[in-house]
Each structure stands twice: as structure tokens, then as C-alpha cells.
Design brief:
- It is a single chain.
- The protein has one domain: TIM Barrel.
- It contains ten helices and seven strands.
- It has helices spanning 2-9, 44-47, 56-66, 87-90, 92-96, 113-122, 136-142, 148-165, 186-193, 218-230, and strands at residues 22-25, 70-74, 101-106, 126-130, 171-178, 200-203, 239-245.
- It has a seven-stranded parallel β-sheet with strand order 1-2-3-4-5-7-6, covered by helices on one side.
- The chain binds iron/sulfur cluster.
- Iron/sulfur cluster binds at residues 32, 34-36, 39, 41, 79-80, 107, 130, 143.
Length: 257
């Protein structure tokens, strides 16, 4: 009974080091440079809100108080972190306080060599880039305001800078929101669009626990089958495909010209 409970508690990851009992999730602004169709930022009421950046002093104060107790730290969640001008400079606090696992989620459009350098220096554990749509047309239809080739170029820049520096971190994860509008292009995305980027290790879900809940709908099952067929033997270390789902109605396919 105790063992089962312990396994349940530990389904996400390892036991945190002594004294680190917090999972810290934070956004540092209320901004995004894109207007993705499935996102609240595409709502004009959200776009009309006054723009805000977490002041640097407040960030530094939070870092001093919480980071030494954090086992896990997500530096962005629902907004685009690189919209905060000095976001790359803030990352040094992660290394300073030796946070064991740190995470950044981004749309990848604003990655620069300087930002990548700071992430590598800070030993950020994981960078998740959201790319939905296996083709340029689909991607740019869904992620309004982004350019497919720019994001792919930025990801290649990350991987090449890591190679040059002999760095294994940050590990790259790609979030790919699947829906009826883009499932037909998913196989092409895996086979062509991110070819050469890194070995692909699909992460279907957290230990497959959510699969049962999400198993309604043929497109999801097809995605699972596609990913399962591509799962390599030895675990690849550099790139994960993390599949998420989106309500079908949120993302309608592009209309034919
Ligand atoms: S990049 Fe993320 S936060 Fe920005 S509009 Fe798209 S889904 Fe929303």
C-alpha cells in the first residue's frame, strides 16, 4: 500500500533533494507576440489589457526566497517569457540557487544567440518550444504572427551552440498540439520538418496515464500509433515530442485559396 502510494507520488520524477519541497511555477509578464488560434491571446479583450512585466527587484526577491527551496522551477507557463526584455539575464539566479530542474516554455520566435548563451550558462534543464502544424502553411495558420522557418532556424541555432560548447543542457522538447486540422501532417512533421534536428523520443504522456482519458477520437489514436511506431530502441536524449490536445473547434483548417 505504502509502496503503491509512493509510486503514485513519484510518477512525475525523482525524489527532490533534502530541503527542496517546492514546485515553483511563474510567468514574468502578461504578453505574447503571437495570436495563436487556440489561445486567449487571440481574444481582443486580452490583447487590450495593459502590458505588464514582473519588476526585476520582485523577481530577484522571489528568487532569493523560493529558489533555494525549489525542486522544480517553471519560468514560464501561459505567456511568452522572452517578451520580458531582461529575461535571459534573470536566468543566472537559477544556477546561483542550484535549482535541480528548471523549465522554460516558449514559442521559439524570439530566441537569439545571446538568450541561448544565457540559458546554457544558467544550466536550464529543459527548453520547450511549441510547434503545431507539420507544414509551414498549417503552422503559420495556427500560430498567427510566427514564421515557421525562423522558429526552426532558432532551434537549429540552439542545438549547434550546445554542440559547440559541449553542453547537454537545455534539453529540447517540442510541444505539438494535435487536432483534426493538423493530424494529417503530423507524420510529415516527424519525418521531414524536424529531420536532423535531434533524435526524436516521443513522450506520449506522463507514463501513459492520461491516454485512457484522451482515447476518444480517431485522430488521437492515429497520433499514438504514429508515435509508437517511431519510438526508438535506446532512449534518445536530445529531443522529445510532447503531444498535447486541443479542442477541435479551436483550430479550424486553413481554407483553400
Ligand atoms: S505562443 Fe503560446 S502564449 Fe503566445 S499566443 Fe501562442 S499559445 Fe498563446
Amino acid at each position: 500500500m505504502v509502496t503503491a502510494l509512493r509510486d503514485r507520488v513519484l510518477w512525475l520524477r525523482y525524489l527532490p533533494p533534502e530541503g527542496r519541497f517546492l514546485n515553483v511555477y511563474m510567468d514574468q509578464n502578461n504578453k505574447c507576440n503571437l495570436r495563436c488560434r487556440m489561445c486567449g491571446f487571440s481574444d481582443p479583450r486580452v490583447a487590450a489589457l495593459a502590458k505588464y512585466d514582473l519588476p526585476r527587484e520582485l523577481y530577484d526577491s522571489i528568487a532569493r526566497q523560493l529558489f533555494p527551496r525549489a525542486a522544480y522551477l517553471a519560468l514560464s507557463l501561459m505567456t511568452e517569457p522572452f517578451m520580458t526584455r531582461d529575461f535571459p539575464d534573470r536566468l543566472a539566479a537559477v544556477r546561483e540557487h542550484e535549482v535541480p530542474f528548471s523549465d522554460i516554455i516558449t514559442n521559439g520566435t524570439l530566441l537569439t544567440a545571446r538568450a541561448i548563451e544565457k540559458m546554457i550558462d544558467a544550466r536550464i534543464n529543459r527548453l520547450t518550444v511549441s510547434i503545431d502544424g507539420g507544414t509551414k502553411e498549417l503552422y503559420e495558420h495556427i500560430r498567427r504572427g510566427a514564421r515557421f522557418e525562423n522558429v526552426v532556424r532558432n532551434i537549429f541555432l540552439l542545438q549547434s551552440m550546445k554542440r559547440e560548447r559541449g553542453a547537454t543542457l537545455p534539453r529540447l522538447r517540442i510541444n505539438h498540439v494535435l487536432c483534426d486540422a493538423n493530424i494529417h501532417a503530423f507524420d510529415d512533421f516527424l519525418a521531414q520538418r524536424i529531420k536532423g534536428l535531434a533524435p526524436v523520443q516521443p513522450q506520449l504522456d506522463n507514463n501513459g496515464r492520461a491516454l485512457a482519458k484522451l482515447s476518444e477520437g480517431n485522430w488521437w489514436l492515429r497520433a499514438i500509433a504514429t508515435l509508437a511506431a517511431r519510438r526508438p530502441g535506446p532512449p534518445a536524449s536530445s529531443c522529445l515530442i510532447h503531444v498535447k490536445t486541443s479542442p477541435t473547434s479551436a483550430v479550424l483548417p486553413p481554407t483553400s485559396p
